Amino acid sequence: KLSYLNEELIRRYLFYLDAKARGLDERPKVQEILRNLEINVLANQLMQDEIGNLTVTSSEVEDFYNIYKDQYQQAEERKIREIAVDSEQEAKDVLIELLKGADFATLASARSRAESASKEGDLGFIKKGQRGADFAAFDEVAFSRSLNTGQISNIFKVKERYYIIKVEAIRGGQARPLSEVWDEINRSVLFLKQQQKLQEISANLLKKSKVVIYEDKIK
Q: What is the dihedral of CA 198, 203, 207, 208, to 10 degrees?
């Protein structure tokens, strides 16, 4: 492979010399391409020179984390068991049995019309939105802050069925520790600092130059 690469480099260089000798670099289209390449190479090098030595301090990472901590929360998951029936009266009858102490899983197997009845109404751990837009009303109840572990909901309707659910467990929902997201935040803060630096340089250069931008001509 190394031999092939060397041969390829030599061949391309010989082609380059012959192209120069033939004056191909004087063609307008080639000159335009070369100018664009020069602009891109030099502009990228300038940007790298200006932002390449930027660093992020520990306090900057900590400040960013404290400001945007909510964005670093683990998704909350809830272990839900459901009973879905076809009429409000049937749902009321089921709720009365539950309030009298009937076992939720047993009633789900016997009375629920949902597919989960074969699993005693057990949906496992689910996230908000996992069941799709049609179950937005379901999520509103299932992930309500007023419904805690071990509690049973009131009757609510989703599409054509009446539901009663039980929250069996809750996990997640807490902010991920700073140590876990340190590198992620460090990259974010560095990127923001780099963009701010480039914006400052661009603004200063525009002030010094006589460049006029005709936005209607930009395609």
A: 0
